Amino acid sequence: MDPSLSLSDGESDDESSSSTVRKTYVIFRMLEFASQASQWHERHRVKEPSIDYSIAREIYLRRLYYGNDRVCREQLRLNKHCFSVLCTKLKELGMKDSNHVTVEEVVAMFLYVLSFNLTNRKVSFDFIRSGDTVSRYFNMVLHAVLKLGRQYVVQPTTEMEGFEDEKWDWFESKNFNN
Question: How far apart are the first and last CA of the chain?
């Protein structure tokens, strides 16, 4: 038997077992305390500061429409000048910057969807916006572009030759609502 493990000179078997039990109890209590402290730390620790999404969004947008003209053409399918003219025309129609979203960002989202046939989820991830925001502003720009289109696109008038022929009289005299 190892002499270091043997009982010390003055200790009896009972004293040795009670001190061992006491030491074991203290060790288990210390482990329990360490475990509880670790759990508390995981729940309540000071978390690292999260990414400031407004700054990340601003950097992305500046790269998109204030950066290189090639990037603007590749991503939005418009050069920077045409993009700024479109934004100006939409502002003249009544679109305004909201508290958190600019007209340029909204138009960029709209063109980005049209350029690549992207889903709402993909655009909301790229522009760091919620899906609701992307959808709402996409529809707003769509309606504004349709209004703008009425100013620039003139629908041709259709005149049918031979309308006066008797073959068309049959359609005028029939009542199709019955």
Answer: 113
